[in-house]
């Protein structure tokens, strides 16, 4: 599928289903924002909104404690699994037409026996990406694209009934699947820059529609890759 075909397929799939897709986006964002803000408040005594309104850049420095970085990493896993749950739900919709309710969809990485495999795989993705980024920024970005299909591959393994999945198995398959296609995904991302600017101009309101559209298109990108391999 070309980029235009992927985008058109996404629009066709979302037609009449925007409410469901928007709920997935809003409530996943809301849950993650609350979790991150609670963690920030516990360690700094200030929530994100307070810091923005006061333009206080010293909040984190003044409230820093040795365990703060570890807590942010743990929170990153919690919120990352929510985003993977959204990816699982959208892929299921693309492949089967099933629309899991948003309030179960955003937590689908935590349920149905998926939690252990999802957590271990996400942990390894974060570690690998961080290590490559520490070396150089560009290699970190490239590896991020190499690992981009990991949650979708993992979801397909769950759908196939696999329960014993190695922590790096889906990552390795993503690297192979993206071999020669990283630039394709990068260009697809670039094609959403105009939409991103529109979202910024509308003070973020536009992202309520743009984010589901982008996620749907990225899922179709994966679906197209698998169909041609």
TrEMBL record:
Keyword Cell division in the entry? The reply is no
Record carries keyword Lyase = no
The organism's place on the tree of life at top rank: Bacteria
One Pfam family of this chain: DUF975
Bilayer-crossing residues are 20-43, 73-91, 119-142, 192-214
Extract the coiled-coil ranges from the record. Answer: none
Per UniProt, which keywords does this protein have? Membrane, Transmembrane, Transmembrane helix
PANTHER family the UniProt entry points to: MEMBRANE PROTEIN, MEMBRANE PROTEIN-RELATED
Under which name does UniProt file this protein?
A: DUF975 family protein
Q: State the species of origin.
A: Lactobacillus johnsonii
């Amino acid at each position: 599928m070309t980029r235009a075909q992927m985008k058109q397929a996404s629009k066709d799939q979302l037609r009449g289903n925007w409410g469901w897709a928007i709920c997935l986006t809003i409530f996943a964002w809301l849950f993650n924002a609350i979790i991150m803000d609670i963690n920030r408040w516990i360690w700094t005594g200030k929530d994100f909104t307070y810091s923005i309104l006061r333009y206080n850049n010293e909040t984190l420095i003044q409230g820093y404690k040795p365990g703060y970085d570890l807590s942010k990493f743990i929170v990153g896993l919690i919120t990352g699994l929510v985003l993977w749950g959204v990816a699982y739900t959208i892929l299921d919709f693309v492949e089967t037409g099933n629309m899991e309710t948003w309030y179960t969809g955003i937590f689908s990485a935590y349920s149905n026996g998926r939690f252990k495999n999802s957590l271990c795989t996400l942990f390894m993705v974060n570690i690998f990406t961080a290590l490559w980024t520490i070396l150089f920024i560009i290699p970190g970005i490239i590896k991020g694209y190499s690992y981009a299909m990991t949650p979708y591959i993992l979801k397909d393994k769950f759908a196939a009934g696999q329960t014993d999945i190695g922590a790096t198995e889906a990552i390795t398959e993503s690297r192979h699947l993206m071999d020669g296609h990283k630039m394709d995904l990068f260009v697809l991302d670039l094609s959403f820059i105009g939409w991103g600017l529109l979202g910024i101009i509308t003070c973020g309101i536009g992202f309520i529609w743009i984010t589901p559209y982008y996620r749907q298109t990225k899922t179709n990108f994966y679906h197209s890759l698998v169909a041609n391999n």
